[in-house]
Amino acid sequence: MTDKKRCLTLDVVVPDVHQRGANVEVRPLVDGEDILAEIFTEGPGEDPEYLLLPDGPLTAVAEPHEVRLAEATCTEGCCGALYVTIRRDGDHVIWSEWRNPDEDEVDLPEFWFDAREYQAEVERAVADHSWEWPARTVARLLERDLRECTDWLAQWECELGNVSAWPWEPDQINLFLFHPGRSAIREDRPWLQFRMVLDVSGEDPAAQAERLAEQLVAGDPRQMAGVCGGSPEFARQLGFPWPQRRRT
Questions:
Q1: Which superkingdom, per the lineage (predicted)?
Q2: What is the DSSP track for the chain?
Q3: What are 194's strand-pairing partners?
């Protein structure tokens, strides 16, 4: 065991709105130092949507579990990612067994945190949405509401992918659906992904999310969206038009 307990801060960084394709990141600071900046420069930290969840990946329990903190911009399979194993040991939380699939070893030590301070910081970061812009808030609330509408999705043989808001498109959100579901991909059956673009206004985000949810569940979401994934053959088999590429 190390003699020095570390201090963890989970910092959320929102990119400049003009940086098309840039991600919102969670940047873990250990004793004020950005560990990603020191050891992994191939891509951004993970999105809060993945890391900052109630009882999510950063929650420490006795059973060790591996968490991805960052991924290369060109994907993990190309230039790697940064993983850490998190476990709780009594009054301590330990980050250890650092791993990058693209490197032989990662030059980071074990980090030991006071368990109560660690959990308090995770809970603070999970509850803090002050960094969100209005569309991101609408997307988060809408996704929460739609995941409770299981009957609506089942009626149309759909599975919710996610609801996203991107900094370079501050006035809209994107809703993604799978038909009939992700399991079809694994089972090598016909499948399609649908994308729906929804406008966001300056209205209260909670009111917008509620209104959008009511509008969506009133009908077949596949008729309100466009196909954006799958294949022309799958579209033919499932009875939907495949999008035509625009000629330049």
A1: Bacteria
A2: --S--B-EEEEEEPPPTT-TT---EEEEEETTEEHHHHH--SSPBPPHHHHSSTT-TT---SS-EEEEEEE-TT-HHHH-EEEEEEEEETTEEEEEEEE-TTSS------EEEEHHHHHHHHHHHHH--TT--HHHHHHHHHHHHHHT-HHHHHHTT-EEEEEE--TTSTTEEEEEEEES-THHHHTT---EEEEEEEE--SS-HHHHHHHHHHHHTTS-GGGSSEEEES-HHHHHHHT-PPPPPPP-
A3: 177, 227
Q: What average pLDDT does this structure show over 208-230?
A: 95
pLDDT grade for 75, boundaries at 50, 70 and 90? confident
- Asked whether residue 3 carries a pLDDT value surpassing 70, the answer given is no
The pLDDT score that the predictor gives to residue 1 is 47
